[in-house]
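Case study.
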Amino acid sequence: MTPEVTPEVSPAVGEASHDPAVTEAWARLQELADALDPDLRGWFAADPQRVERLTHRAGDLHVDLSKALVHGGVLDALLDLAGEVGLTRRRDAMFAGERVNPTEDRAVLHTALRLPARARLEVDGHDVVPDVHEVLQRVYEFATEVRDGSWTGITGERIRTVVNIGIGGSDLGPVMAYEALTPYRQDDLECRFISNIDPTDAATTLAGLDPATTLFIVSSKTFGTLETLTNARLCKAWLLDGLRTAGALDDDGGDGGDAVARHFVAVSTALDKVADFGIDPDNAFGFWDWVGGRYSVDSAIGTSLVVAIGPDRFAEFLHGFHVMDEHFRTTPLHANVPVLMGLLNVWYTNFLGAQTHAVLPYSQLLHRFPAYLQQLTMESNGKGVRWDGADVTTDTGEVFWGEPGTNGQHAFYQLIHQGTRLVPADFIAFANPAYPLEDAHDGQSTDVHELFLANFLAQTRALAFGKTAEEVRAEGTADHIVPARVFSGNRPTTSIMAPQLTPSVLGQLVALYEHITFTQGAVWGIDSFDQWGVELGKQLAQQVGPAIGGDPDALAEQDASTRALITYYREHRR
Ligand code: F6P
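After joint prediction, the assembly is written out as follows.
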């Protein structure tokens, strides 16, 4: 394997992007792909060092790439590709606070959110680290007051439920981490999450809650998102109505300002808009435009998580991110796990025709992790133009998806094992369960976590090595059924293990995928930090709104299909 290559193309910010397809490494990878005769059985047999060579450590993560569909020549060419496109130059530019998000003219510094307080990082001549830690301290103080009961609602009762109102990055990260860190939550405090503008979401989430003991966190980077502001208004009305009905607020209690002050806080980069909404700026926690929404769970957007797990655990979570940041920033590329995993994804996507990528956590606690990764990876790398506006010439971001094992096994694994499509998959598991349980039956006791892990191990083995017709026949299978029971093998997986799903390990996992995403975007020459693709739908929703409401002129402006759908709606709406 070659060492880190000096960049031949060095895409400095503001300069032209690059076309990876014209690099020498790309041409070599194409030749290697054309000649590839995947044979994981043979490769393992011929190379006793394969597992050792392709297993890497990143923080607490043990990452086994040996079941990847690569041989040494492919890895060398992928690392050369990283060199030719200037991956390390762009990585270093991001960490240094350069404006690597040109279409929004912004620095990209989620990594600054997890720097230790002693670090320094200047953006436009200003050290941002003290700002980060000042907000963190305020969030920690607020969360501590909620957790110890000294933050009370308008009736003097302590808070029992915290409802985060937000969508996209202002929801998915907090929900995912809240679920993942269930064992670390404070027992007498619950968090709930409202994201969808479907009124069902607010109605069902608020059902059964007592307004006197409920606190809302309105989380929105822009504080201009229709879903979040609508849900925040619904919640405000629910709160004030509920308090009035309970006699906790006078009927003539004005706009309920005191109640809002005790029951609403906000997280945003737009603190002026927070004030306009009626939330006291003293109850608002800021962050910065250099934090992308999908990279914001470790900013004040994680306030609900801090309330749930407490400042010390949140600090461990941040430390986990930082551990992975340092691994990504300093480890030579041939042993750099996010780089290798990102390059493998490029290999599968651009050379072996994969269109999707499965993420399969063998941990029920990570049941929202694939959904979280969908925004991280697909909003980042679902781009058809490069960062300088030129059309890409290669495929970009793959579809990420997944479910926790073993549920997925009984749903879609059939296609991964025997279907016609290549689905590279990441399997994630932990040595220690959060809830160790024994299954006692017939005078025996089985550690259920070991049953679970047996599945984790069996699946990647079956996918890699398959089962030949001879092996199937040797089991006495009737000839006409043999083809249906053959497993081709050579279906690539990565196995990621860690001792336990702690806050730190969760931070490491999230940062791992952030940097995998970065690596792929850097190879493709795209801006992984903008998200213009979500704007058109938002604009059209504003335009369609009056037509749904019955405005004939607005209806006439719609296309024929939209008109017909609106007509159907108006005929059927009771
Ligand atoms: O869907 C687009 C998007 O801008 C995401 O990138 C973001 O996470 C989400 O909307 C929510 O935005 P905000 O935090 O500004 O409400």
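Observations recorded in class. The pocket of 6-O-phosphono-beta-D-fructofuranose is lined by residues 167-170, 220-222, 225, 228, 293-294, 379, 531, 534 (CB under 6 Å). The CA atoms of residues 140 and 311 lie 5 Å apart. We will return to this complex in the next lecture.
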